[in-house]
Amino acid sequence: MSRTIIVSNRLPTKILRTENTLTFQPSEGGLATGLGSIYRQDGNVWVGWPGLFVESEEEEQHVRQELEADSMAPVFLTEAEIHDFYEGFSNSTLWPTFHYFTQFATYEQSHWEAYVAVNEKFCQAVLEMAGPDDTIWVHDYQLLLLPEMLRRARPDCTIGFFLHIPFPSHELIRVLPWRNELLQGMLGADLIGFHTYGYMRHFLSAVSQLLGLNSQNGQLQTPTRTVLVDAFPMGIDYDRYAQAAASEAALAHEAEYREALRTTRVILSIDRLDYTKGIAQRLRAFEVLLQRYPEWAERVSLIMVVVPSRDQVAQYASLKEEIDEIVGRINAQYRTIYWTPIHYFYRSFPLEELAALYRIAEVALVTPMRDGMNLVAKEFIASKADQRGVLILSERAGAARELSDALIINPTDTGQLAEAMHDALVMPEEEQMQRMAAMQALVQQYNVFSWTKLFMDRLSYAKIKQLTLATETLDTSTTTQLVTEYQAAERRLLLLDYDGTLAGFNTNPQRARPDEEMLLLLQRLAENPRNRVVVISGRDRTTLQNWLGHLPIDFIAEHGVWLRRAGEEWTLFQTLRNDWKTEIRPILELYVSRTAGSFIEDKEYSLVWHYRRADAELSAMRARELVSHLTFLASNTDLQVMEGNKVIEIKNAGINKGTAASRWVAEYEPDFIVAIGDDRTDEDTFGAMPPEAYTIKVGSAPRSLARFHVRGTTDVRQLLRKLL
Ligand SMILES: O=P(O)(O)OC[C@H]1O[C@H](O[C@H]2O[C@H](CO)[C@@H](O)[C@H](O)[C@H]2O)[C@H](O)[C@@H](O)[C@@H]1O
Ligand SMILES: O=c1ccn([C@@H]2O[C@H](COP(=O)(O)OP(=O)(O)O)[C@@H](O)[C@H]2O)c(=O)[nH]1
């Protein structure tokens, strides 16, 4: 039976050692609490770290058995690994960078090496248990390399990846020395999910700017596969929190707290200790509230739960000291015999006590500087059976994209936050209920179960999409078949595109000169009297002549405008005009001046706007604009607009690589054809070939007319070598 293997750094159960006994208890943190409700279904299993350093093999065995009985498989980490991988790379490099706190980020090579090694450790653990039909669902920033590692070991397996923290602007990602490896690691997945569309947009932009990979509607083309990218705002187990809040135990705790607090009204804040959560700023805002509105003294208290977290990381330890200091100062200044302004707890609470806190609070303060989602906000909403209560929510929490009925604030604006607290305390009940009802409907419907289903459905869709889009890979057996047919044939035609096929791309096209090996390969292939080798390119004839003209090969240049048979003169495909250039060139010049890095190539019978060196997003936008502008001008003329790989070309209509290549097929009457190309313009060649021809697309091949695809220029070289 197929099942889902959830993989995250932390398991939903953590194990504590007190003297000689081990205690198993629920982990804190949104990932563990959120997914805690789903992993036990359908034979699923959760792979992760149990938070314990085992001291003997027997202990390891015992822990493994206990966890296995509850559908978990532990990955044990050593103290050194936790230091370098968890506290180091995960929480001192990635966490601050992804939350826009680069001033706290460190860049240690040894931490990176530990990160790679621990991701490999997780990879081994997953591979040991994953069957061919299992779905692997990798979670979060601690395991960014894992999808690609798994993909290398199991090319066909189904892998989903979800990032629980923000994905920041490309400007922050580019600071990381290991940025490309991290992005490549994520791209091993079939589906990559984020909490919000904003994070998804940043990711696609980073992938485009740093790896040069394009996407359309969240569909990303890597050299080998189509990867889907989408936004899935995570929900909570609504009923669990609603039921906990209605439980006898929660009511009893609430009664206790009420008795102790007497008539004091309650503002609540609950977070892990983290500088991203805006705890210090929130305390200052509470102080501003007491200064601006002295009438709240003795009438309102802040109950603040801070759950210990990552306290071995220096920034967390100093934040703890800062919070202690601010709480001490405010309490010392405002406290009376009858009233404590801030009730501060530095520990975690069991579910029923948390539920009682959610119940008793009239206002919840969720005011992070940055937060992937924030589940506390949603748990507060689920706990409010009587719909009274106000949520104050930071605009920089992922949850703010959904919970627009909260009072949305900028967490750095302490004045605004203090006013929001006042507004919340005086908000009429009717308005509270209206806002709360709307948020409850949303949080109840988009819960963690619907979130999981949506993700899993989309992951299946990603797999189907890959199958329908992909052309067949030119694997060992099809290559053997190709070579066998080639060897048996008498009249072979080899149509080879140049850029992206024979040669790799260079940001300066004039630098993509042929290397010695390519020249030798073409020479030797063309020397065989049974072969006709044609380089079929969009390049101008002068460049092709200079680079390859001494070889005994044929040429189709400028996408079919100029033709040359080996040893003969260049001829035009048909009579052409180029008087149109005077009108079109100024338009292209306008786009060059508006798009830094782009330039014009003036060929004999065409004009080309190149944008490979320009900013990816800006030039993609300009390219759309230019195509529609040129297409409008070209209508009712004999001109055509062609889109290639980061180029837009305008030229005489009716001529393309396909029409030119057909002339070779008709004249030469080959009994074997191989046509290789990487570009939109090579599709014309593929489309013009008879069905038995070996048409090969270089790179991933959504909607290609080619029968096969290979990954890149290295594979092309290998294939040509095999033909010799
Ligand atoms: O495992 P820890 O180092 O103790 O940290 C706890 C978790 O913190 C982060 O939670 C995130 O996930 C939540 C659910 O999606 C989300 O609401 C929150 O905004 C995130 O910060 C972290 O991403 C997890 O990996 C940690 O386990
Ligand atoms: O004493 C506590 C306080 C909080 N939490 C839980 O910790 C999670 C915090 O998740 P959130 O998404 O708000 O932030 P994260 O800590 O993951 O960054 C929530 O589910 C809380 O219920 C907990 O288990 N024990």
UniProtKB/TrEMBL annotation:
Name any one Pfam family assigned in the record: Glyco_transf_20
Stated EC number for the protein is: 2.4.1.15
Give the UniProt keywords, A-Z.
Glycosyltransferase, Transferase
Any one Gene Ontology biological process term? trehalose biosynthetic process
Pathway stated in the Swiss-Prot or TrEMBL entry? Glycan biosynthesis; trehalose biosynthesis
**NCBIfam families, alphabetically?**
HAD-SF-IIB, PRK14501.1, T6PP, trehalose_OtsA
Quaternary structure note:
Homotetramer.
> Family assignment?
Belongs to the glycosyltransferase 20 family. In the C-terminal section; belongs to the trehalose phosphatase family.
Q: What is this protein called?
A: Alpha,alpha-trehalose-phosphate synthase
Q: Which organism is it from?
A: Hymenobacter telluris
